[in-house]
Amino acid sequence: MRFANKIVIITGAGRGIGQAAALRFAREGAKVAVCDRDKAAVDETVARIQSQGAEALEFAVDITDSGAVEGMVADVIAGWHRVD
Fold first, then answer.
1. Which residues contact 47 (CB under 8 A, 6 or more apart)?
2. Strand ranges (DSSP E) for the chain?
3. Phi, psi (5° rounding) for residue 59?
4. Distances in Å between the alpha carbon of 61 and those of 1, 5, 24, 33, 68?
5. Any idea what DSSP says for residue 64?
6. Distance (Å, rounded) from C-alpha 65 to C-alpha 55?
């Protein structure tokens, strides 16, 4: 578990490479903040992470909106106290 207890944020985690990265970090012990514009895709990725016994937070965020990104990061820090 190379990333045990690390906190990661993955954007574009609803599908493709982003989803694969989120799942891999979770398998390696990380807590993953899953971010994507597509809420349904975020829900799917979070469900897959949780089915592995890992922790995940979900965020439907458009990363072109700086205020939304700042809010998401603040929520991650509020929940897990840091970002690695």
1. none
2. 7-11, 31-36, 56-60
3. -145, 125
4. 28, 24, 21, 11, 6
5. T
6. 26
pLDDT 10s digits, 16-73: 999 999 999 999 999 999 999 999 999 999 999 999 999 999 999 999 999 999 999 9
pTM for the predicted model, two decimal places: 0.93
d(CA 20, CA 22): 5
Give residues with Cβ within 8 angstroms of 23, minimum separation 6: 45, 48, 49, 52
Two tokens at 41? 């895709």
Q: Are 51 and 63 in contact (CB under 8 A)?
A: no
Q: Where does the pLDDT of residue 1 fall: very low under 50, low under 70, confident under 90, or very high at 90 and above?
A: confident
